[in-house]
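Hey, I'm writing a tutorial for new members on how sequence and structure tokens pair up, and I'd like a real worked example in the thread rather than a made-up one. If someone can provide the structure for the chain below, I'll link this post from the tutorial.
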Amino acid sequence: MGLMAEILRLIFGNGRNVIAETAEVFRENAEAGSLRETSLRAAALEQFGAEFAHPERSRFDRVMDGLNRVPRPAMALGTLGLFIAAMVDPLWFAARMQGIALVPEPLWWLLGVIVSFYFGARHQQKTQEFQRALSATMARAPGVVQRIEYLQSGRAEKPGQAAAAHDAEVALEAVRPEDNPALEAWRRSAHQGPRQGRER
């Protein structure tokens, strides 16, 4: 008996599992691996949550967003105004165009760079906001589908859902959910009532 205890103590150590500790060198501990995977997923979800959070926008942000919407309509309306000015007062328009012809070429390049950077940054910002909103909507989709399926599972459109057993009338009423059983019973009693009164 003492020999067996010594052999077991040699294999398993003093309260330790030597075989398990040796195996962990060659193979990952499943419990520790699942804990690491869970913590990794929790960290990723926390990061996604922080990335897609909708911070409250301040009044300054809303005012600047409103100002950022001004240049495009102003440019479009200004161009239409130039056409109207050319038709109303051609001499005034020609004098202004001669002034524009004196603007040096590098200044036109600078204007093009500023306008393209402005509209490019604006487009990128709106695209990212759209992607965030789309991701939030897609994240809600499985819950919505599940709720719709749950609501549709309550419909009694198939025989057998009403647990009619062998009663054919109940099975047919389950197929026609728009029928009102109380109303049908009242109609039957209304038709039978006068006849019973006459028989008496």
